[in-house]
Specification:
Blueprint (H helix, E strand, L loop, with lengths): L2 H9 L4 H8 L3 H9 L10 H10 L3 H8 L3 H11 L13 H13 L4 H8 L3 H10 L14
Length: about 140
């Protein structure tokens, strides 16, 4: 639902029910939309992230420069689909591929466990596993256990 349009209509004095009718939504959906705050602006712009990527900075270096948590940097990298020196799907050498395959296929680690080990998001972990050629299994199912 377009939050800006819903706010404009509310400022014109329309009821939640009337806004809902005009936007083909329920009164509750309109109420939730109007109560939900706008998302915060990015901590680091896409252009800055691209520049940091070409400069070879790590996600921790970006976090330190901006006074934010490393996980926040990872969030924006995922949103922008950008890789940094220490974070991204194209950062696999042969040794890393072998390690990922061993953890996932041989040791039965879950995507969540591997992501935690590497301090990266689960979505990046899945991308890395696919790049490593791992045959993905259903969540919760572990070989030999």
């Amino acid at each position: 639902m377009d939050r800006t349009e819903a706010r404009r209509l509310r400022e014109q004095g329309l009821s939640l029910a009337e806004i809902g009718r005009r936007m083909n939504r329920s009164k509750g959906a309109v109420s939730n939309t109007l109560r939900t705050p706008d998302p915060p602006p990015p901590a680091v712009s896409r252009d800055e992230m691209l520049r940091y990527s070409t400069e070879g900075l790590s996600s921790q270096e970006v976090a330190d420069r901006h006074g934010i948590a490393q996980v926040t940097v990872h969030y924006w990298l995922d949103r922008y689909q950008i890789a940094l020196a220490d974070y991204g799907p194209d950062q696999l050498d042969e040794q890393s591929v072998a390690k990922l395959r061993r953890w996932y296929s041989d040791e039965g680690d879950t995507v969540e466990q591997i992501a935690e080990r590497l301090d990266i998001s689960e979505s990046w972990t899945l991308r890395l596993l696919l790049q490593a050629g791992a045959e993905l299994r259903r969540p919760g199912r572990q070989p030999g256990r």
